[in-house]
Specification:
Family: Belongs to the complex I 75 kDa subunit family. In the C-terminal section; belongs to the prokaryotic molybdopterin-containing oxidoreductase family.
Radius of gyration: 30 Å
Shape: globular
Pfam families: Fer2_4, Fer4_7, Molybdop_Fe4S4, Molybdopterin, Molydop_binding, NADH-G_4Fe-4S_3
Number of helices: 30
EC number: 1.17.1.9
Low-confidence stretches: 1-9, 161-177
Protein name: Formate dehydrogenase subunit alpha
Mean pLDDT: 91
Structural class: alpha/beta
Strand content: 15-25%
GO molecular function, one term: formate dehydrogenase (NAD+) activity
Strand order of the largest sheet: 13-12-27-26-25-14-15
Length: 980
């Protein structure tokens, strides 16, 4: 028979191949008479699976290294003695393997018999029935009887952890102290030790996949069991982060989702994309009918590679929460209660209001805010609504308040407004520089991959005011933590560049080949000035000069250097300057254009990148092309059949300012809660209150809806088709798992609103029947999406833009052969101190961020069991700062700034330096943004959330503002009953 190469499993093939894939020279062997060619280093087990030969296994899984403990996968190899485990045996040239023989069958059956002898035989009522690897493997090896007499085992039918004397006598033994009760402490899954076969897969998944090292095997022999920590710990109190890796790895019902026990074994699945952070994890939504049972990370998802976090894996219950609004509502004034109406009436009401405003105040008196939570197709339609129907460019997006400096800074330096690498690139990195990002909390699935690379030997530099978990955690520790003073990012990065240039560590060949040499010379003249030296900036930044010099040398000389940054870079008055300084640093060291390097913004929400790509900014049409360019406008004018205003529109802060001034009167806000998420809450509220028509399109009556006149119920990501674009420019399909509970997908609602506005006008009605048609329009008008279609996405799984005739399968790595603008551009990055300064009245600096269990303004995660980990915003303060203020851990404190005040609970920690305090912004009861100011980035108006001068003092009651706000919110959410 002719040798052939069997390809690795294809997308859609979810078989567990037993051990990880390898790359290397081809090796030919024969398995059960089948010739196979596989890469060198491949295990015999994986080679057999690739030849479609099933070998029984219990301890092996293809997302972890081989362990070789269960002994079910034994095989015979010609010329070798014994029966080696196929999972730990690598292939060899000419090897002849037999996976079946009388001897092997006898061995496997005997091993399985031992497993079953200490396992409850309650398969009919077990929650894993029909989805149990132990059950399947017992059938695979032909086990039909257990010869061992019942004796002491770990099975406790009562679930209490103690066996009755009567039961002990029946079993012929004494009271067995080995029983421990089922652990129900975690809100999402249970741990039943009586069903544990001690295969160690959960422990290894926690170590190798997640990198938390929360689980161990405790005891020896018969006493062995999985432990989540000390004897006093359970799965809730332990270091477990509830990512679900252990649950997914468990071959029995030892670790089992509570939803499966309640709703039954799923019978079908739909592959879709998570709607939380910018990692863009792929999931299999597993269903019973139209009931979602569980979300299982999809192993072919190229962003997550089969892993997940607590939000994506478990926190989807908000989609069915009782707070969801499913009927449209209207009201004349914001003081009135809401009135439920039919869709036609709500849309007509909204359209009449908006048309009336434009007739009275002009076509530029209204605008839209698009959402980074919605799909590309939905976002595209919202910006099209303002340009093609309202006739202006008043469109903005939540990226304004998070990553707009990324677009500006990378556009100026590299020519594209996006990150340069895919997530796989981290596996080739030698030195990682993290600045202003907290990946373990904000982007945990990527953080797991990063931690794995760090455990393999990569070096780490962290630039952050806080000592985040990535600085020091299990088996990971940063070589350098540079705890800069908030607001001094530019000074720190420029000081690093100063060291690299003055010490001759630049990659001159790269710069001459790839970058503008004249601009580089000008930059050298700027950056070599002694005022940029680490020693000159030590008092300003709070970073020791020696540490900064050492970190700069490491980054420049340590091999492949990758930079990952987040909102701690962009949400500053010099956010755009810091992004350009980071880009300068990457070009100086030649760290652009190959695997393992690059400049990588970690996007906060699931579709921040896509919202920007789709033309949601007021000065840009889709594809980052300025609206003033006639040739660009002509493309869309031909497609849409209308003239496009060449004048850039209003940004979100400008809309609010204009509303207060009385010139901006109407807003359609899809999927954003600007009252909670945007800075200076008092000003946002004043702007919204001054408008004559605010249309909120969302799942819940959010804080912005307190000032709305129309509420259009939205659909969750489970109820729609479309695409999201993640932080690595990866376009992933979102597939409808169930019918929209409100009756319509969000793109349909926007289309209905557009057509209601176009009534009795000369404009052309919209006639989309599926999101794929919207994507076709995007592809026809946007060069970077030219090769994208739903058919292509189904074929390839996902695509990273640019995707065009030069890159028909997308572009994982940017700038491989040169920059988009031809040359990389070095930019002068002068440090300018923020106007927000600490002083006698406000001596502390507040910075804000996220926590693992919650997401953004908490609208989704607060309506799930995730709130058991974080049910309120808490202020972190250094013990020294607390002591001088007479504040103890757990006290309530008053947090006040020049902009406003609030109260919240305090926790004492050395994670923040003296003079710095930190809190999250997930809970509307706190409304942390009532204290943040209106200072913003000089280029993009991205708010300066990360630097607010504050004072902290003891308090025992809510602030006056909180009481007033809560009363207004309660009145605003009144809904008339049908009888009324």
């Amino acid at each position: 028979m002719k040798d052939f190469i069997i390809p690795d499993f294809a997308p859609g093939d979810d078989r567990d191949m037993g051990t990880p894939a390898r790359s290397g020279a081809p090796v030919a062997l024969t398995i059960d008479g089948i010739p196979v060619i596989v890469p060198e280093g491949t295990s015999v087990m994986r080679a057999a699976m690739m030849a479609d030969v099933q070998i029984p296994k219990l301890c092996a899984s293809d997302n972890m290294e081989a362990f070789g403990s269960c002994r079910l996968c034994v095989v015979e190899i010609e010329g070798r003695r014994g029966t080696p485990a196929s999972c730990t045996t690598p292939v060899a040239e000419g090897m002849v393997v037999r996976t079946q023989s009388d001897k092997i069958r006898k061995l496997r059956k005997g091993v399985m018999e031992l497993y079953i002898s200490d396992h409850p035989l309650d398969c009919l009522t077990c929650s894993a029935n029909g989805d149990c690897e132990l059950q399947e493997t017992a059938g695979q090896v032909g086990l039909r009887d257990v010869r061992y007499t019942p004796g002491d085992n770990h099975f406790d039918p009562s679930g209490t952890g103690a066996r009755s004397q009567a039961e002990a006598k029946l079993r012929g033994g004494h009271d067995n102290p080995q029983f421990i009760p089922k652990d129900n402490s975690n809100p999402y899954f249970t741990y039943d030790p009586s069903k544990c076969i001690v295969c160690s897969r959960c422990v290894r998944a926690c170590d190798e996949v997640q990198g938390t090292f929360a689980l161990t095997i405790e005891g020896r022999g018969f006493d062995s069991r999985v432990s989540a920590g000390t004897l006093a710990d359970d799965f809730f109190s332990s270091d477990c982060v509830s990512c679900g890796a252990c649950v997914q790895a468990c071959p029995t019902a030892t670790l089992q989702e509570k939803s499966v026990a309640e709703l039954g074994t799923p019978t079908r699945s739909v592959i879709t994309t998570c709607a939380y952070c910018g990692v863009g994890c792929s999931f299999k939504a597993e269903m019973n009918g139209d009931q979602l049972v569980r979300m299982v990370p999809y192993k072919h998802g190229k962003a997550n590679r089969g892993h997940s976090c607590v939000k994506g894996r478990f926190a989807y219950g908000y989609a069915a929460h009782q707070d969801r609004i499913l009927k449209p509502m209207i009201r004349e004034r914001i003081e009135d209660p809401w009135q439920e109406v039919e869709w036609d009436e709500a849309l007509a009401f909204a359209a009449d209001r908006m048309r009336g405003i434009q007739a009275k105040h002009g076509r530029r008196s209204v605008g839209v805010i698009t959402s980074s939570r919605c799909t590309n197709e939905e976002t595209y339609l919202v910006q099209k609504l303002t340009r093609a129907v309202f006739g202006n460019n008043n469109t903005d997006t939540c990226a304004r308040v998070c990553h707009s400096p990324t677009g500006y800074g990378l556009g100026k330096t590299f020519g594209t407004s996006a990150g340069t690498q895919d997530f796989d690139s981290v596996e080739h990195t030698d030195v990682v520089l993290i600045i202003g990002a907290n990946p373990t909390d904000g982007h945990p699935v990527f953080a797991s991959r990063l931690k794995k690379r760090l455990r393999q030997g990569a070096k780490l530099i962290v630039v952050d005011p806080r000592r985040t978990d990535i600085v020091r955690s299990a088996h990971v520790e940063a070589q350098y933590h540079l705890p800069l003073r908030p607001g001094t990012n530019v000074a720190v990065i420029s000081a690093m560049a100063h060291v690299i240039v003055t010490e001759g560590l630049v990659d001159e060949a790269y710069i001459r080949d790839r970058c503008d040499w004249d601009e580089f010379q000008h930059y050298v003249e700027f950056i070599t000035n002694p005022r940029h030296a680490p020693e000159a900036n030590e008092a300003l930044t709070g970073v020791r000069a020696a540490d900064l010099r050492a970190a700069a040398r490491m980054f420049a000389t340590g091999g492949n250097g990758a930079i990952y940054y987040g909102l701690g870079v962009t949400e500053h008055s010099q956010g755009s300057t810091t992004v350009m300084a980071i880009a300068n640093l990457a070009m100086l060291t030649g760290n652009i254009g190959r695997p393992g390097v690059g400049v990588n913004p970690l996007r906060g929400q699931n579709n921040v990148q896509g919202a920007c790509d789709m033309g949601s900014f007021p000065h840009e049409l889709p594809g980052y092309r300025h609206v003033k360019l006639p040739d660009v406008r002509a493309i869309f004018e031909r497609e849409w059949g209308v003239a496009i205003d060449p004048e850039p529109g209003l940004r979100i802060p400008n809309m609010l300012d204009a509303a207060v001034e009385g010139t901006f009167k109407g807003l359609y806000c899809q999927g954003e809660d600007i009252l909670q998420s945007d800075p200076d809450t008092h000003h946002v509220a004043a702007g919204l209150k001054a408008m004559e028509c605010v249309i909120v399109h969302d799942l819940f009556l959010n804080e912005t809806a307190n000032y709305a006149h129309v509420f259009l119920p939205g659909s969750s990501f489970l109820e729609k088709d479309g695409t999201f674009t993640n932080a690595e420019r990866r376009i992933n399909r979102v597939r409808k798992v169930m019918a929209p509970r409100n009756g319509y997908e969000d793109w349909e609602v926007t289309q209905m609103l557009a057509n209601a506005l176009l009534k009795d006008s000369q404009g052309a009605k919209w006639h989309y029947t599926h999101p794929s048609q919207i994507m076709d329009e995007i592809a026809s008008t946007t060069p970077s999406f030219a090769g994208v279609s739903y058919e292509r996405l189904e074929e390839l799984g996902s695509i990273q833009w640019p995707c065009d005739e030069n890159a028909p399968e997308g572009t994982p790595l940017m700038h491989v052969n040169g920059f988009e603008t031809g040359r990389g551009h070095f930019m002068i990055t002068e440090y300018v101190a923020t106007d927000e300064k600490a002083g006698p009245r406000f001596p502390l600096l507040l910075t804000t961020g996220r926590i693992l269990s919650q997401y953004n303004v908490g609208a989704q995660t607060r309506r799930t069991e995730n709130s058991v980990w974080h049910d309120q915003d808490v202020l972190e303060i250094h013990p020294h700062d607390a002591e001088v203020r007479g504040i103890n851990d757990g006290d309530w404190v008053r947090l006040v700034s020049r902009a406003g005040e609030t109260t919240l609970m305090v926790t004492l920690t050395e994670r923040v330096a003296p003079g710095v305090v930190y809190t999250t912004f997930h809970h509307p009861a706190t409304q942390a943004n009532v204290v943040t100011t209106d200072f913003s980035d000089w280029a993009t108006n991205c708010p300066e959330y990360k630097v607010t001068a504050v004072q902290v003092s003891a308090s025992n009651c809510p602030s006056d503002w909180q009481e007033t706000y809560n009363a207004q919110a309660e009145r605003s959410r009144r809904i008339l009953s049908a009888a009324e």
